[in-house]
Input
Amino acid sequence: MLRATVLGSGSAGNALAISSGEETVLLDCGFSARETDRRLGCAGIDPSTVRAVLVSHEHSDHLRGVRVFASCHRIPVYASRGTRVASDLDGRVPEVRVLVPGETVSIGSIAVATFRTSHDAAEPLGFRFTGRCGRSLGVLTDSGLVTDEMLEALAGCAALAIESNHDEEMLERGPYPWFLKRRIRSAEGHLSNAAAAGLVTTLATDRLASVVGLHLSSTNNTAHLATTALVGALARLGHPARVEAARQESPCVLQL
Ligand SMILES: [Zn+2]
Ligand SMILES: [Zn+2]
Output
């Protein structure tokens, strides 16, 4: 059985721990290595069980602690070719292994499949983690739009961690300068609550048990608005999946 723990999510740092019982992999390490160790401990995960760090893309809210964490724990870092170069990983971590979008790698008992996302980064990736039980967690964050490739990669997941970055109206009326608003709304920006709700509607099969909204903006969103959009979308289908919003400050656990 896989267990997924969002150690924290938002523009100040992102990290997600996926544990099989035998081992743990970390997706992104956007907090300092020390803070990541602390958050793993709070979530009841021994940092020495982490076998690898996967990096979705090179933005600092996903990369900040990767080099020190991987070096301290002497574990490999997995990233796309583009992220590898843009993150300047070579020589700074014990080993870099390249992820090719569309391919699957095994890290212990966890199968990791990747797909391309649409974001203003070198070669950003989304992920699907599958345990021996056959149940999958799909993760899509930092993407300005949803493509057919993403829908295919995320089909049939038992749990979904999906970016729910902003409420469109709050962004429109909020204090951000126009160029930042344009970047967030762009095809290489971030998914809104409405976009996340639309995606979850498409992916709501009988297997789906849990949905968590990721990367909520502290300026242009609230946990209430993000969960209301997701709950509403599932309620219209009469779907019973649990919904919550990940927080920046404290971990939350996703049941598969
Ligand atoms: Zn980003
Ligand atoms: Zn981000």
